[in-house]
Recover the amino acids of this structure.
């Protein structure tokens, strides 16, 4: 899988939670949770999405400056070898969706 780094942040670890674009969507590197295929990421990571797109997964706000989101667990050794995963991190792949709505168009 081809990866293009978009941004990182949220911890002092080398890889930190990170966002990449792939041939098929976004690869999200985040903190492991107790649910397989679900990661936790800092809010700021969503700001690295490519212009005109967004991370196509339901995000749940934890109330502590992070979201949890689920996707396809990344297990391919050649892809994992391109990442700097901390011991408490894993990676998932999610859809990249095109933004079609930019807020209300009328005034009230």
């Amino acid at each position: 899988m081809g990866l293009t780094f978009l941004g990182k942040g949220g911890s002092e670890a080398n890889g930190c939670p990170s966002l990449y674009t792939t041939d098929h969507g976004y690869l999200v590197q985040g903190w492991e949770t107790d649910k397989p295929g679900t990661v936790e990421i800092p809010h700021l990571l969503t700001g690295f999405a490519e212009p005109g797109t967004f991370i196509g997964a339901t995000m749940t706000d934890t109330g502590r400056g992070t979201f949890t989101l689920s996707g396809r667990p990344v297990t391919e050794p050649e892809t994992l070898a391109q990442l700097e995963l901390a011991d408490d991190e894993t990676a998932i792949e999610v859809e990249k969706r095109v933004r079609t709505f930019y807020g209300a168009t009328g005034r009230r």
